[in-house]
Structures are given as C-alpha cells and as structure tokens.
C-alpha cells in the first residue's frame, strides 16, 4: 500500500522501475520466490533512516521529559528493511556501472503497479511502497508523524538514484534481523522483463534463458539496448 500524505510524491502505477543485480542474487530470487530486504541501518549511507537537523532539534525538545522517545527512533532502524528500485523509463548506464560488478549482471524491469500486486500481506510485517524525496538535511524538515517518513527522505547528493522503495517494518519484536530478511512475492507479477548486461557475451544471455526456463518461468529476456549495433 502507498503512504497517503500530501508531502510525498506518489508514482503512478504505470511508472517503470528497475532493479540491477548479479546472476546469483537473481537466481536466489527465482528459486526462493522471496525478495531480499536490506536492514536500513546496514546501508552504506550512514544517514539512512535518520532525521534532518531541523527535525532532530524538534525531537530533542520533545525528548527532554521523555528520553525513551528519542531512543525509540534510534533503535527503529534495526526493525525496518528496504528493497530499492530505480525509476526510469529507460535503462540507466550509471546503474549498470554502480550495481553490477562485471559483465554478467542483469536488470529486472517492472512497474509500480506490479510491485504493489507482487507483495503478499504478512502478519508480522507492515509494508509500504513510496518514492524517496531528496532534501537538504541542514535546512529542510522531515515530518515524523508517520513511522515510515524517515526512510523516504535522503540527501540531495543521492538524487541520481531516483529511488522508489518497498519498506517492511517488523511489527513482531521476536523476529531477529541480521543483514535483512526475505519476504514472499509473486515472481511473475514482480518481473515484467529481464535485460542482460550490455557488455555480456551471447553465451551468457543463452545461459540466463536456459536457467529461467528450467526454473519454470517464461519472462521476456533481452540484451541491453545500450550495446546495439551502430547504424551508418
């Protein structure tokens, strides 16, 4: 479900999104039919799930007589997991470079509507889909009247990511999360099309096609458009 708040941009269902990953992670997704969600405090960005300076100053004032209020927000990052997707009508050369380490990566193409339909409601999880807002953490305010808001804001230096997120909050405190957790998804709904790394060889594309078929799936698999033949 979407966060319904006028301060947040909500993408249309038809918005195209991408996830760039290596073959091993892709096969794990197909075989387990579960989507891996990274624990929010394990991201490379140390500001992940934190507040901007104006918001933090307000929270500190509210915590003067209630120190547990601030501690709650600090520990909450350990209970929130995230799956990141890239909004773009087309492939992104930069995303290939950042998220695939060699020529054997691939990209899942989907849409916001497909992500929404692919999620299976789970008793222990509160799940949302939201587009990330990029702000100046020294000047701009992050609302905290909803628990998910801190995870839908990032610093402006990350604008190139154009990120939309699936966010899962572990409501059941007995669940232990190490680096993250896996959630059940409808694979056929999640994946609309697969693109093979632009620098991969033909044998690699054929291998991916064969593996996908053996696992019982029938996705459209294409070579990246970034390495198409030059026409003169």
Helix and strand topology:
Blueprint: E1 16-22, H1 23-32, E2 34-39, H2 53-62, H3 67-76, E3 80-87, H4 93-99, E4 105-111, H5 112-118, E5 125-131, E6 133-135, E7 153-155, E8 163-170, E9 180-184, H6 187-190, E10 193-196, H7 202-214, E11 220-223
Q: Choose one word for the global shape.
A: globular
Total domain count: 1
Total beta strand runs: 11
Between the first and last Cα atoms, what is the distance in angstroms?
A: 48 Å
Largest sheet: 9 strands, mixed
**What share of the residues lie within helices?**
25-40%
What structural class do the secondary elements suggest? alpha+beta
The overall pLDDT average reads 87
What's the multimeric state? single chain
Brief rundown of the structure:
The chain has 232 residues and is of the alpha+beta class. The chain is built from seven helices and eleven strands. Helix 7 links the parallel strand 10 and strand 11 (220-223).
Q: What report would you give on this structure?
A:
By secondary structure, the protein is of the alpha+beta class. It is built from 7 helices and 11 strands. The protein has one domain (16-227). Strands 1, 2, 3, 4, 5, 8, 9, 10 and 11 form a 9-stranded mixed beta sheet that branches. A two-stranded parallel sheet has the order 6-7.
